[in-house]
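We close this part of the discussion by returning to an individual protein. The amino acid sequence and the backbone structure tokens for this protein are reproduced below:
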Amino acid sequence: GLRAVGVEDIVVVASSPARRAAVEALGVEHVIDPAAVDVAAEVRRRAGGRGVDVALDCAGAAATFSVAPAVLRPRGRYVIIAAVPIEVPFAPWRLARSEIELTGSLGYGAGVFARVIDLIARGAYPTQGWVEHIGLDQVTDGMEELHNGRRMKLLVDITPT
């Protein structure tokens, strides 16, 4: 999705082996297993020591909230996309000392779906390998596998087979 809008230098941090494999299959070169390395040090190293411009939190995990400010450059932008209802310890000084902008995005704003559909139709947004179609009778198992990190994205086909 990011490449479809012109972003080329992408680093993905994912704890799930299935998610890392799916991201690598899409051609992302920098995929990090947070259990294997110090994420902040590795991301800063890959960013030439200065930090990244933007951190997109798609996980909504407490660990992500503490690592994101550490990987951002001064005046970087931290965008929370994950809509997971968790509470995390918050140290506002970590944002203030580097003038980091913190914002949230639900991702379903006006025009978002139309733009994504257009990108998919033009072939600019590949879905193979990470988007799966399931039947309505598979929703319970599919959601469990999704929440356990064994699947990435599910589209439920509600038409009878």
Notes: The helical segments are 17-25, 39-46, 62-71, 92-96, 112-121, 139-147. The two ends are 30 Å apart (CA to CA).
